[in-house]
Amino acid sequence: MPGFDFPPFALPPQARALRGEVRAFLKDALADKPSVERARSWSGGSREFSRKLGKQGWIGMTWPKQYGGHERSYAERYVVIEELLVAGAPVGSHWVADRQSGPLLLRFGTEAQRERLLPAIAQGELCFCIGMSEPGAGSDLAAVRTRARRVDGGWKVSGQKIWTSNAQHADWMIALVRTGDAEQKHAGLSQLLVDMKSAGVTVKPIANLTGESHFNEVFLDDVFVPETMLIGAEGDGWRQVGAELAYERSGPERYLSSIRVFLEFLRVVGASPSEAERLLIGEMTARMWTLRQMSLSVVGKLAAGENPAVAAAVVKDLGTSLEQDIPRAVQAMAGPADDAFERTLSYLLQTSPSFSLRGGTREILRGIIARELGLR
Amino acid sequence: MSELRALLADTTERVLARAPGWAQVEEAGLAKVLVPESEGGFGGNWEDALIVIRACGYHAVDLPLPEAILESSGAKDKALFAAMMLAAKMAGALQAALDLSVEYTRQRQQFGKPLASFQAIQQQLAVFAEETAAANMAVAAAFRAADRDDAWFEIACAKLRANQAARVSTGIAHQVHGAMGFTAEYRLQHLTRRLWKWGSEHGNERFWSDRIGARIAERGPENFWPDLTE
Ligand SMILES: Cc1cc2nc3c(=O)[nH]c(=O)nc-3n(C[C@H](O)[C@H](O)[C@H](O)COP(=O)(O)OP(=O)(O)OC[C@H]3O[C@@H](n4cnc5c(N)ncnc54)[C@H](O)[C@@H]3O)c2cc1C
Question: What is the pTM of this model?
Fold first, then answer.
């Protein structure tokens, strides 16, 4: 079954030099950043940092130069994003745009949309949010009810999105909306680019259990969206959102989110750990190394023009399990340690439950895998 | 896959699927996968050898074929490479047990429908498929590393990952098979009993975790990621 075939993929030689460049840049840019802030990973964002990365040419790396991209390989992009994640760089402002909104526009967007938005994304100037989930549409995404009604020159959109990460900072939302009848569950969906500054858009932050507000409710009250802001074809939203989710799930952020506490653990146990500590380190290392190989293999599939949706689901489910096991196992094993360690651990213990929810839950991913196995 | 490698895969499948004797294996040249063409071998590398060794696990063939291949290689650390061979057999056996479990749950009916249609079964088999993919990935990466240079770390991780996968997956395989899987007659036990045995041979989880853990700790947190991406 092709979805479970993971051929090894070796990074090309030019990736090595690039890695060195990225490391040097990050060492300098993040010099005094404390561990617990690095642990925020792609949940933390800074426009200023995104602009800096844009200047380096490290956003929109694989896109055509014509749209402000850099025509680098998927492998080179991979090197940059894994270094950013491991360093705990504040990439949140451009992460979604670089990972999925841009590629979606490149694939399905109009020429005018690409010309207008892609260069600005590549410069680190634009923040995008994902307008999929609604109060009544979580795992059952096709149940979205936000409605786009035809009016002169475009649509009027009304409804509510929820759990929308970064909506309070975002310039644009790519919203999955209903343009057809509710009876045509899948066929009635379309994707629209919603300018977050439009009249009728209200964003209300929701505090998560750590007390931080990353996600939001977004109320859309008769928001006018011009005709030109339809992505792809009307009624094609379900197929397109599937492609978007494959981009969303395919990257190394799905297994690296807890690396910070693992590194902290290595720091506090030092060079001669106890046997129990060695066993934990060995177990997690083998899992992480294997996941990196699988993640690289997904890059190989992307580079070969294949759709890695099932492979990405496999990596994401195994990866988020590792990301959740690391803080829990580290907590169980750790002796008394310093503040930097404790704060990093406590942060990741608290945030890690979200890892197997965001981007499609564990159960939904396993359902995708079961379908590939021919069980459903 | 190159044409030659595809040919090797075909031959391997044709021979090993039929519970062959040693004579047939020798005749097909499978033991000489690493032997140079000039000396009458296939002239392959470790990635080619993986095809043959993994198939020994898939078909539960106990002939000393991996040993013969290892013997013919220039590998210095025989114990380490023996662990790599075994990890490859485990990856093959896991795949076979998964295929069998999928097939069985699609055939067997309870409550008027196939077991495969129950979500509890689907979710378990999804985990099985993930673990099998992980073991196969780890093994493939280790064999590729073996062609390059010092592959201690990759081989250690591959055997450990295969052990982990076998621990999780053998339980699932038996659970979804019900009592049938617990019989001597049904094929599953030929795979799972081997997996349990191989999980102890050439290093169980403790053995490899301990060594990997010691090495990683010694290198310290600042080298962890640079080493992993070397
Ligand atoms: C930190 C975070 C950030 C997020 N950011 C965004 C964002 O930016 N944009 C956005 O659109 N969404 C976002 N989400 C929402 C996320 O996509 C949803 O949480 C997810 O799709 C699950 O939906 P739900 O929370 O409504 O859970 P539910 O769908 O209600 O599921 C609850 C539980 O039931 C299980 N379940 C549901 N259906 C089935 C089934 N058929 N079979 C078996 N089990 C089932 C689920 O797997 C889960 O375990 C975010 C979520 C989190 C936690």
Answer: 0.97
